[in-house]
Design goal:
Elements lengths: L10 H17 L2 E6 L2 E6 L6 E6 L2 E6 L7 H6 L1
Antiparallel strand pairs: 1-2, 3-4
């Protein structure tokens, strides 16, 4: 399944969203995100590539979570 979503959050919502990702990176084996009509889960590998892009319109911080599912996680799907 593929998910390609863009959305706008307020400062608190953005902070909560990023904190969920931070918590997953620190404490879990996958990042799991969901909203009303979509959800996505991605196993976490040992490295997270990061890209920063900045111009006169603002700054974008992008990162890629990638990894292989563990055996017990694959069995659940």
């Amino acid at each position: 399944m593929s998910v390609d979503k863009q959305f706008v959050l307020g400062k608190e919502g953005a902070a909560d969203f990023l904190q969920d990702i931070i918590d997953a990176l620190r404490e879990k084996d996958a990042v799991r995100l969901e909203a009303e009509n979509w959800k996505v889960s991605q196993p976490i590998g040992d490295q997270v590539p990061v890209r920063i892009y900045s111009d006169e319109e603002g700054m974008e911080v992008m990162f890629k979570v990638q990894g292989e599912a563990k055996e017990e996680e694959e069995a659940e799907e």
